[in-house]
Specification:
By secondary structure, the chain is of the alpha/beta class. It has 14 helices and twelve strands. Bound molecules: D-mannose (DNO).
Length: 392
Amino acid sequence: MEKTWRWFGKNDKITLEMLRQIGVEGIVTALHDVPNGEVWTETAIADLRRYIETYGLRWSVVESLPVSEAIKYAGPERERLIENYKVSLANLGRQGVRTVCYNFMPVIDWIRTDLEHPWPDGSSSLYFDRIRFAYFDLRILQREGAEADYTERELRKVAELNERISEGEKEELIDAIIVKTQGFVNGNITEADKNPVSLFKQLLKKYEGIDREALRENLRYFLSAIMPVCEEYGINMCVHPDDPPFQVLGLPRIVTDEADIDWFLHAVDNPHNGLTFCAGSLSAGTHNDTRELAERFASRTHFVHLRSTDAMPGGDFIESSHLTGRGHLIDLIRIFEKQRPDLPMRVDHGRMMLGDADKGYNPGYSFHGRMLALAQGEGMMAVVDDELRGGR
Ligand code: DNO
């Protein structure tokens, strides 16, 4: 697979010069300063593409061309937004950038409650604590009917947490769940927003009455509308699985397991409609076996995220080492190197280590941690490639 790296543009503290030295071949990026829903002009795309190429690298994947909320909840602006999306796709296609990752998660993209979960060795990683998340839902958002989504035991734990949680910790929780993890992926809330919780609640309201079936229909509608452009320009769309892959905050999530993936691939049965195989997101659901999913969906996968998780008691999960955990990256590399050696892959997230913590990197996107993970990924790929050649 092609070794790619998520880079956040010319202001990223991790420069293309650095990436060239650590064996990166392709860049995964986006026009991060274009607001969601607006057209990506061909000039802006060409400028970034050329800049990347001056470093001997190529712009391999767009992550993400964000799908505006009104497309997901079918608001009145949907047609205009889909038209803009099509123009952006055509402009990307004309510039030769033909793999486009996006997601269809309502309101909130990926979810973590703790951005610096300490490891015994002094490094840290991202973590999802189910009780803290329930606390956010029940006590901070005070979402109507939320109690029904938690067990008696969980509700008791939330009440216990309420006795000891400090105001500072509450702020940190809000920051982790809806601000720091969201803004940089062109999410709905950024650090500049004064009252993130009330903004978030307004967004949740837009989905009242939208269940799984309705959201599926809106995904089908969107994909059907853009497929002709994808065919014309040879663009491969690859939806990112929901992270974590289960229902949250009363919102439907529709890319969570084998049946969901099967559904959307058949709903618009076109080879340009494919999957981002995010091993980290999928493995965070204990109902998923990443190896079975990879075997089944390799042919419709257009992009691979190598990351692993470990399930903890009580529904928590931690971002584990890339060599261990439920991601089973060695097996996935075996499957993809054999069936789809052409695919771009990036190591997704890394621990914070060796001074990463002071640099202000986006959560999960450390330099040293990801460099270590890339080296591990490269090592696994080298062994698998050797196996495939029959060893020596
Ligand atoms: C987080 C990422 C996601 C992902 C988007 C793709 O680190 O995996 O934010 O980029 O969901 O659309």
